[in-house]
Write a structure and sequence with these properties.
heterodimer, A: seven-stranded mixed β-sheet, 7 strands, B: alpha/beta, five-stranded parallel β-sheet, 16 helices, globular
């Protein structure tokens, strides 16, 4: 898959409370959750971002809670992909289970500014900063995990397989 | 092949003689857990599979503890989804208000999780059960949904780090201080994707409540699980609570570790983690020096809501009053802890000191309800996280400590050491 959009840059240790504050967790409606995506990291994020945009962060993105609401909120907000130096373990798993594409790369985190236009090829892991012309290489998303993302998450994927018999 | 306790539990549940770090396995789970925030998504995902019944109604555990007693209509609707599903599925271990508690205090107390178990929970602090010598880890709702259906989950076998704690701790130094100090050393991603095995003579001498605090916060270093090899203290705790057989695993002396870190607990003073990461831990003396005025103190949570934690707070509060303009909220972890606190006269002592004594809830820890901070306010809490906005307004601040430091702070109105309040320890 090719993902293209503007980068929104964040720092180290962006935790799940910053991604979706617990005060909004009295619902699990993706649209409601999306309205508050990244609110405690950048209160204006949802006003500024556009569908297809990309979150770029440094180390340990998604640390903290197991709340799948964090991956759901980012995906429902219209973010096409998250690139970080590293991901917290539970968030990493939740991203694939909910169909949110993520890529690990220290170099991208260091070589991209907010507003840069990025193009990502998830199959070979190449990431081009269209604004600066710089090309980066992340580990590609394995094809079975990309399939899971394309189907919209683990359960949708399992269901599709069941229907295919 | 020599294996760690983590590897042995994973191997046994996957039906292998041995496993090694990095290996992907599918393993049987003993308990799959979720709460009122994470279960509604798990239930919705479970129902997408079109499977009628959960794999075992005794092994799917649902505890509505985050927004309960329900704070508003939306949270009541969430709790109702959990209640209706539990009734429909005939779950043995659904805990209604009045019998419920904070999940990670409740499950060990009720003997639902046991040594050698493989437990997954849709709550990051599921790692608490490592204190019993279980492999326990947090996952998202979808993984729990899959486990509810199949009784299995996939795992990447983690590398282990061994932390050897030795020496004798000084006054007012608790398990909470050991772990805050450790996270301060290795950072909030210091054990990312790894297992934290906690060992040494200082752990052998550490009571169970302190071990629960330590395993509970393994996730705050990014760890997959925290674990302590079971000993006599574990068996004393489990005896009389266990509802089924359990297995005691140990690490082989020749087992491989990513590295071994030795920590002399005699060097550890009561710790305070400054905003806004648990890794910002410092000696309480540093906070005392800075004269940090506090608006609210919360004593409780899955980290420090056990009876021994309340006794510690009571020792400091005895004969004292909560400082003017400071709110002290004390929350027992379960109904059993609550009842014990009443029987021992702790509840009376808290109320007389000027504290709020609440029914069990996770409420304030995650900024849910029962103690939310306004902009500019500061709290000291015995909870596990002090992220931005964790207990309320994004411009509020949370400092983490053990219950004795928290209680001393409540008396002094600023971050304080227990020694300032109690003399002749």
């Amino acid at each position: 898959m090719i993902y293209q959009g503007r980068a929104w840059k964040f720092g180290d240790d962006i935790d799940t409370d910053a991604i979706i504050p617990a005060r909004y967790l009295n619902t699990s409606d993706p649209k409601e959750l999306a309205r508050h995506c990244m609110e405690d990291a950048d209160p204006e994020f949802m006003d500024k971002m556009q569908s297809g945009d990309i979150i770029v962060a440094h180390k340990n993105f998604g640390c903290g809670s197991s709340r799948e609401h964090a991956a759901i909120a980012i995906k429902a907000a219209g973010i096409s992909c998250v690139i970080a130096g590293s991901f917290a373990r539970i968030f990493y798993r939740n991203a694939f289970n909910t169909g949110l594409p993520i890529l690990e790369s220290d170099e991208v985190a260091a070589g991209v500014k907010s507003g840069d236009q990025l193009q990502i090829n998830s199959a070979d892991g190449s990431i081009e900063n269209l604004t600066t012309g710089k090309i980066f290489q992340a580990k590609p998303i394995p094809s079975f995990m990309q399939e899971l993302i394309d189907d919209g998450g683990l359960m949708a994927h399992v269901r599709k397989k069941q229907l295919q018999g | 092949m020599a294996m760690t306790i983590t590897e042995k539990i994973l191997a046994s549940h996957a039906g292998y003689d041995e496993v090694s770090p990095g290996q992907l396995i599918e393993a049987r789970v003993d308990i799959a857990l979720a709460n009122d925030v994470t279960a509604p998504i798990a239930i919705a995902e479970f129902e997408k599979l079109g499977i009628e019944k959960v794999f075992d109604p005794q092994r799917v555990v649902l505890v509505p503890d985050h927004f309960t007693p329900n704070k508003d209509i939306k949270s009541a609707e969430q709790a109702k989804i959990v209640r209706d599903f539990s009734r429909r599925q005939g779950l043995t271990n659904y805990f209604e208000l009045g019998r419920m508690g904070i999940e990670h205090v409740l499950l060990p107390e009720q003997g639902i999780v046991l040594p050698g178990d493989l437990v997954i929970g849709a709550d990051s602090h599921t790692c608490t059960y490592g204190a019993l010598g279980a492999f326990a880890t947090g996952m998202g709702s979808t993984d729990i949904a899959a486990a509810m259906a199949t009784g299995k989950a996939w795992f990447k076998v983690p590398e282990s780090i061994k932390f050897i704690y030795y020496g004798t701790p000084g006054p007012w130094v608790e398990g909470k201080d050991f772990i805050l100090y450790t996270i301060g050393r290795i950072g909030v991603d210091g054990a990312l994707y790894q297992a934290m095995e906690m060992a040494g003579d200082a752990i052998a001498g550490l009571p169970m409540y302190g071990r629960f605090s330590m395993a509970n916060m393994a996730i705050e270093a990014g760890a997959k699980n925290g674990i302590i090899i079971p000993d006599d203290a574990t068996l004393d705790y489990v005896r009389g609570r266990s509802q089924r057989d359990y297995h005691l695993y140990t690490s082989d002396p020749q087992a491989d570790y990513a590295y071994v870190m030795e920590i002399d607990v005699a060097q550890i003073r009561p710790q305070v983690a400054f905003p806004s990461l648990p890794e910002n831990s410092r000696d309480v003396a540093e906070a005392v020096e800075q004269q940090i005025v506090i608006d609210q103190v919360v004593i409780g949570s899955c980290t420090n809501g056990r009876i021994e934690d309340l006794r510690l707070a009571a020792r400091v509060l005895k004969g004292n009053k909560v400082a003017p303009y400071l709110r002290l909220i004390v929350i027992p972890g379960t109904q059993e802890v609550y009842l014990q606190a009443v029987r021992e006269g702790l509840a009376e002592l808290f109320v007389e000191a000027g504290a709020v004594f609440s029914t069990p809830t996770c409420g304030p820890c995650l900024g849910g309800h029962m103690g939310i901070l306004a902009a500019g306010e500061r709290a000291v809490a015995t909870t596990n996280r002090n992220f931005v906005g964790r207990m309320g307004h994004p411009d509020s601040e949370v400092y983490l400590s053990n219950p004795a430091v928290a209680a001393a702070t409540a008396v002094m109105g600023r971050i304080a050491s227990p020694e300032e309040v109690v003399t002749g320890n």
